[in-house]
Amino acid sequence: MADHDDENPEAGSAVAHHEPRQISSGTAVIPTEQFENPGEPPHRPRVTDKDPQEEKRAERQVSFLFFLSVIFSCLAVAAYIAFPITPGDTHSIRLNNLFLGLGISLGLLSIGIGAVHWSKTLMPSRELTEMRHLTRGSEPTRQKAAEVFELGNKESGFGRRALIRNSLFGALVAFILPGVVIFRDLGPKTDPNVVLKHTLWKKGMHLTIDPTGTRIKASDVTLGSVFHVIPENLLTSEDMLEEKAKAAVLLMRLKPEDLHEPAGRENWQYNGIVAYSKICTHVGCPVALYEQQTHHLLCPCHQSTFDVTENCKVIFGPASRPLPQLPIMVDDEGYLVAQSDFHEPVGPSFWERDK
């Protein structure tokens, strides 16, 4: 038993001197054998290791695959343009997705096959044995790591084989083109400064609750409350989603003495009720978190924080300008209406805006 062996000094001595151990199997005692390291199998050179012509041919094949990836990536962009999506036409969606997906998939597949073919035919194929050891961040370790990278560069031929290197760079650059075209097509096709400077808000437009479209009376807005607001005519707009992305507003009520409105904006609020764009000025995420005690608006995407008492100026985060304010007033029936549209573009500020 293990407990008796631990107490037996002779057994401990046998282990310490690495003497052969014995394993009991029933009534027979079988001595264990000590195995020697068989070593690595003999190296089998590849065709490309023995024939320079084959090595050159493999290099051309790898480069061809990388250039082929460039072609497929360009075809994906061409397919996205040649097969546009028509609203309501599912056939156009299928064609667009089919050819765009084929172009992107074949472009990535060509890069993958080229990289595998490169490693199989041109990179060193000798067997390596690495001893296990602790990884330490000492200076000798870092120097050794740099030597390994340098050796890998020499053995792979990445710095020496200009044809493969340049074709790989070309394939990687071309592969991102379909994504650039797709994402750019999501944005406005005209100057964003012009598109985002005007929304559905105009003088006399009623503020309504999102998404029901119910008009809001000033008496319904209590201290500490917040309303998600849309223009009254949004629900009948042909481009409802696009217009909502520009015109969405947050409505809050504070004590009038807590507001520090700048000169010229004293009449943009009504008895402490203020309205600000819901679209964050960083990258356009919806600002939807309101802290009643601090009167702060928080964007959940990148934590930009705006102070409502100070005209929604930025007090934390990557946003570069305050949220645009919507001037409001009440009509004869006590409903909240807009005095005008926003006086500046809404949304992100990563383009050059008019001064």
Describe the overall structure.
- The protein has helices at residues 2-7, 9-16, 47-50, 52-82, 90-121, 139-156, 162-175, 177-186, 192-195, 240-247; strands at residues 22-25, 28-31, 207-209, 226-231, 249-253, 273-277, 289-291, 296-298, 305-307, 313-316, 328-330, 336-338.
- Helices cover 38% and strands 13% of the residues.
- 24% of the residues are buried.
- The protein has a four-stranded antiparallel sheet.
- Mean pLDDT is 84; it is low at 1-18.
- It has ten helices and twelve strands.
- A hairpin with a 5-residue loop joins β9 and β10 (313-316).
- The protein has 355 residues and is an alpha+beta fold.
- It is elongated.
- The termini are far apart.
- It is found in: Cell membrane.
- Residues 1-55 are annotated as: Disordered.
- The chain crosses the membrane at residues 64-86, 98-118, 163-183.
Query: CATH topology of the largest domain, anyone?
Result: Rieske Iron-sulfur Protein
User: What proportion of the residues form beta strands (DSSP E)?
Assistant: 5-15%
Number of distinct helices: 10
The parts where pLDDT drops under 50 for at least 5 residues are 1-18
What composes the largest sheet? 4 strands, antiparallel
What is the succession of H and E elements?
HHEEHHHHHHHEEHEEEEEEEE
Principal-axes geometry comes out as elongated
Distance between the termini: 87 Å
Adjacency order of strands in the biggest sheet: 3-4-5-6
CATH architecture of the largest domain: 3-layer Sandwich
> For the record, what CATH class of the largest domain applies?
Mainly Beta
Rg over CA atoms, rounded to whole Å, is 35 Å
How many beta-strand elements?
12
| Category by helix and strand content | alpha+beta
Q: What share of the residues lie within helices? A: 25-40%
